[in-house]
Amino acid sequence: MGPVSGIVEEYLSLKAETDADLLAMQVGDFYEFFDEDAREVADELDLKVSEKSSHGSSYPMAGVPVGELTPYLKNLVERGYRVAVADQHEVDGDHERDITRVVTPGTLLETTDASAQYLATVVRGDGETFGLAFVDVTTGRFHVTQVGSLEDAITEVYRFDPAEVLPGPALRSGAAFDAFRNRTDATITHHDEEAFAPGAATHLLREQFGEEALHSLGIEPGSPAVQAAGAALAYVTETGLGVAGSFTRLQPYRADDHVELDVTTQRNLELTETMQGGRDGSLLETIDHSVTAGGRRLLQEWLQRPRQSRPEIERRLDGVEALAKSALARDAIRETLTNAYDLERLAGRVAHGTADAGDLLRVKETLALLPDVAATVSDTPGLSESPVAELVQAPNRDRVVELSGELEEALREDPPKTLTQGGLFKRGYDDRLDELIDGYEEATEWIDGLADREKQRLGITHLQTGRNQTDGYYLQVGRSETDAVPEEYREVKALKNSKRYTTDELEERERRILRLEAEREDLERRLFEQLRDRVAAQTDRLRETGAAFAELDVLASLATHAVENDWTRPTVVEEDVLDVEAGRHPVVEQTTEFVPNDATLADGRRFLLVTGPNMSGKSTYLRQTALVVLLAQMGSYVPARSAEIGLMDGIYTRVGALDELAQGRSTFMVEMQELSNILHSASEDSLVILDEVGRGTATYDGISIAWAATEYLHNEVRAKTLFATHYHELTALADYLADVANVHVAAAERDGDVRFLRTVREGPTDRSYGIHVADLAGVPAPVVSRAEEVLGKLRAEKAIEARGGGASGEPVQAVFDLGSGQFKGDGSDPEPSGQDPDVEAVLEDLSTVPLEEMTPVEVLSRVRSWQERLE
Ligand code: ADP
Questions:
Q1: Residue 444, Cβ neighbours under 10 Å: how many?
Q2: pTM of the model
């Protein structure tokens, strides 16, 4: 860079070089922000703004001391800013400044938040293929996958909850971009398009992970997954942290190894946060008894990714069972793990070369726990034969013990805060260091005793030694006695009440001390770096041990919750069943005297229509059933007396969309989108939870859609379904559709009050409750009876046929009469009931409309047109 006219000009020209939101530029002992940036930063961080004038103009300026940059940066980045940092260095006596790094939400190393901190890249390939990479610089995790739809891509992004998302070139605007934007509060960064190019990405990945890595991991060179991974790596490299080297392992995963849980379902089931957005009251918060940060991260991962493969589920369940049955050992293990630090994060810092002595001590202390834990496991008969034993044997114990032993021999327990203060190492660790320390101590002892010796020798009372930056070591004598100093004393400074002197001897010691200090500092730094490099070479040991501790912590946490809440081990089977006996809602049971309920879905009753009055417990019943399945497939015990769970490939839900309403999106539109997604995505092996369908529109609209959706799910999709509805009319379907069964949540009437029994019973509710509740609530009798009359009128003279679904698959042609709530005849010759030819035409249309070929929205508009014709 040529001569720059002024600081502010230099700032502005550096700012123009970067696409970061803010620039922090070092000016001497401060990092300064100027101009717009100064105002913004001052606003966010409550800093004072001053004025800097340059070339006749005046600019706002805000600064932070060099030593305090990190917390400020962290604060800004956690608020979503990307901050460029320009450091100052000296070249031929001149100051030069360059941007050395850009700190961004997805690449922040200094985070203190225990949750994972992902940077995500999303690339759209041909058609509906999406490549995704998720990178956590704090732990070195590097996941990559490919999915087959936008919806699945969004689901993955929601699951990883990244701090920053880099959309690929084709995803930077339009509907797909909006869809992402709406589902994540991550910072969105438009990184260089070149980084996403297939060739460049493939090349970069090969360089990082080795020629063979892609091949052996089964990842197609040039594929969207590779583009995503390559771009993520390029970004991490370009932000200048020098941390890319800490990614040693690319971890491809298949989204379809896991139970499909779309974003809506994760929210509806309140897995990690409640519908209101808080963590309290979520399933995670309820079942989390983990004692380590790694354990908590893993528990969340398991919860959001239940498995489809039985061996893995059984392995986890075996582990939970073993720990559930060994209370003492479990307590001992959890107690030990309480002392574990976040090994995954520490491994990251060691690998980046940012670990300090305190970090290495924490590594040592944590590694040293492994033999303890392993001993507890092998001494406990119930555990020594279980998967828990395999877990603790996974890390190479000899190497771990060796490493923690080496750290133990090397490092003092109370290391100084910075590497330059000296005192990192124990005596006996390095001969040369010991020599330097001996020499140093000898010299400082001589100086420490000097004042006393001189007082005695010279008979001076006010004499002391001291040291400071400018004068170095000195002897200080009070003014009243300066006449008594001997001639070898050379004055270095006169103060108001005293004078400072030095002597040849003192100077000689001082030179020695300075030399020893410098050499010691230098040696300690080198020794430390060597030690850190040796630990870095064992990063994989650290990660293995961290992973073992995290999993052990999760299994122990699940066991603890199971024991404390009387949960049972589910039987997970390949067969097509779902049979929960006395099931409970895992969260609701924490605060309520819970009434357990059974849920049985199998051939002959794959589709349960759940009716019952408002507030009776329908939603709770639906959700608890879904949660039992989810818990079982993540490898947890479940809140039930017994549970037999046939493996599901997905859980889909649709429940009242409160939050969307708050966001101002039409609830009915959202409801239909969710329904549409379910009808498209669910399979015979899925569990579908529908909590009211069609409520957001007029009654007949609603019934029609609910009716058609029931038929479609029953006949075509064949998913196991629980459908709570207030359309009492639908319950008649059970007689005609082979796999539909009715259950209801019972309520009893006593002393004019509805008493909720919370018990789920076979069969439909015996009445539609709305008017009845109005009656109970004391609505005047004439209003109640008039309401009954109106309801009767509304229902009169309308008939619908039920389609399809006989046991043989033959279409059943029965006519449902909304007036009586009954089916009439076999409907093979439907009696046109309306006299009006318009009504007849509508009915004709209604009976032939090809529901299977229509989207719910098309159904909706068709129904609307009927309504118009009937008016
Ligand atoms: P609905 O969906 O029928 O309107 P909810 O499922 O929302 O009813 O339940 C209403 C209330 O009843 C909730 O506060 C819930 O905590 C409680 N509840 C539901 N089921 C049970 C049960 N089995 N045992 C105890 N309380 C329950």
A1: 17
A2: 0.79
